[in-house]
Amino acid sequence: MSSPNEFSHPGTAAEALASLSKEEVLRYSRHLIMPEVGMDGQLKLKQAKVLLVGSGGLGAPLALYLAAAGVGRLGLVDFDRVDFTNLQRQVLFGTSDVGVPKLTAAKRRLSDLNPEIQIDTYETQLTSENALEILRPYDIVVDGTDNFPTRYLVNDASVLLGKPNVYGSIFRFEGQLSVFGLPDGPCYRCLYPEPPPPGLVPSCAEGGVLGVLPGIIGSLQAMEVLKLILGSGNSMAGRLLLFDALEMSFRELKLRKNRECPLCGENRTIHKLIDYYQFCGVRGEEAPPPSVEVPEMTPIELRDRKSRGERIFLLDVREPHEYQICHLDGYLIPLGDLPRRVQEIDASGTVVVHCRSGVRSAKAVDFLRKAGFSRVWNLKGGILAWSDEVDPSIPKY
Amino acid sequence: MAVKVMIPTPLRPFAERQAAIDVEGQTVGEALDALTSQYGDLRRHLYGDGGQLRSFVNVYVNEEDIRDLQKDLTPLRDGDTITIVPSIAGGSRD
């Protein structure tokens, strides 16, 4: 955590929060000349304390715009390192940040963007044990997370502490936006009392996100944060925005507080944080791969068996657009098509099934074994492991 | 009543990748029955084993949540739009 950088002019910290320095007046002049912000509004921004949970696709534009706007104290929670696959959308980071803890890179970038503000970093996973302590000092919480357990945790902790929770979520080219946790407004549990059970969440083959989309939804979240701080305009509380980038359509639905909500309803039953992983079940997108116990073959073993001339039918259960990225000359049958295309598999020799990381292919091996195929193995670690252990010329994605 | 059902991205693979589907029905329940009899795979994503609408799938008629109206029995008018809104978690990674 850093100390406030508010001593560039004389006076105490409290006095510094009540006025703008000459440098700040210049920096924020485009806010100051707007009557809707003005000196009063800019001082509200300077005194505001906002916590961003997640420094990913949504967190990147959020952090950049809130820092630039002069939100005086910005807290960031994340425990990841910057990865090459982040750069397609996480505009807070650059190529030279790859491998660096996200919060180290974020703090460097944000301090350069605006040295006038305080940036607190929490390099940890938000958990039921630390959430209330981390959220408590802040006025507003922003949910830029990517998984159900943390979303329910952020929601519950915000409601228990009485803090607004600015919500954004994205999937491929669709986004959702709302503001939860205002005194008379609904919370995330009013909208969705329960998370989807494991198995009904779109598989990783159907994941992915158009890079600009989190930029749009994260920027809309940042706008809602500024409006809450300034106390102006109509917040998204009580409304759910649905954005479809392909149609370029914004639709709005009404959200009402659920009187029977276990968290914020009249007879609430949740009075403290719970175990959110248990609540949400184990799910492929967040938790380790579902433990389908199937026989495995390592990439090295597959290479050796092939080089000994063993007859091997290599089955690739990814999607056609993934095959275009890279392949191992396998026979392509997407996992979803497998049940009706099993007769295409040559089971006279050994069958080895692979996907990108080994999760989908484990399901395929399990399915094939139950369907009566006996000599079927899962390629351990999928194409990613093949690239690491056998052929580095195969690109990873 | 002829109504339009908006299919969210995560469920489009179960509806031949269509974004909107026209169906007939006097009530929301009838319209969704018409939809899921046409696209069987959608049914298990919308309804639990007990035939109840799943709690992470919300259904709206125009702007209103059917939980605030008459749920499955909410009457429809010609030209109404039914929107299916499942919870999505994405943010930074996938």
Structure description:
The complex is a heterodimer of chains A (397) and B (94). Chain A has 397 residues and is an alpha/beta fold. Chain A folds into two domains: 233 residues, Rossmann fold (3-Layer(aba) Sandwich); 94 residues, Oxidized Rhodanese, domain 1, CATH 3.40.250. Chain A is 34% helix and 16% strand. Chain A is built from 16 helices and 13 strands. In chain A, strands 3-2-1-4-5-6-7-8 form an eight-stranded mixed sheet, with helices on both faces. In chain A, α5 links the parallel β1 and β2. Chain A is elongated, with a radius of gyration of 25 Å. Chain B is α+β, with helices and mostly antiparallel strands and 94 residues long. Chain B has one domain: Beta-grasp domain (Ubiquitin-like (UB roll)), CATH 3.10.20. Helices cover 19% and strands 24% of the residues of chain B. Chain B is built from two helices and five strands; from the N terminus they run ββααβββ. Chain B has a five-stranded mixed sheet with strand order 2-1-5-3-4, with helices on one face. The longest helix of chain B has 11 residues. Chains A and B meet through β5, β7 and β8 of A and β4 and β5 of B.
Largest inter-chain contact set = A-B, 52 and 28 residues
Mean pLDDT of chain A: 91
Count of individual helical segments of chain A? 16
CATH class category label of the largest domain in chain A: Alpha Beta
How would the global form of chain B be characterised?
Answer: globular
* CATH homologous group name of chain B: Beta-grasp domain
What are the defining features of this structure?
heterodimer; A: about 400 residues; alpha/beta; Rossmann fold; Oxidized Rhodanese, domain 1; 2 domains; 8-stranded mixed β-sheet; 5-stranded parallel β-sheet; 16 helices; 13 strands; about 15% strand; elongated; B: about 90 residues; alpha+beta; Ubiquitin-like (UB roll); 5-stranded mixed β-sheet; 2 helices; about 25% strand; globular
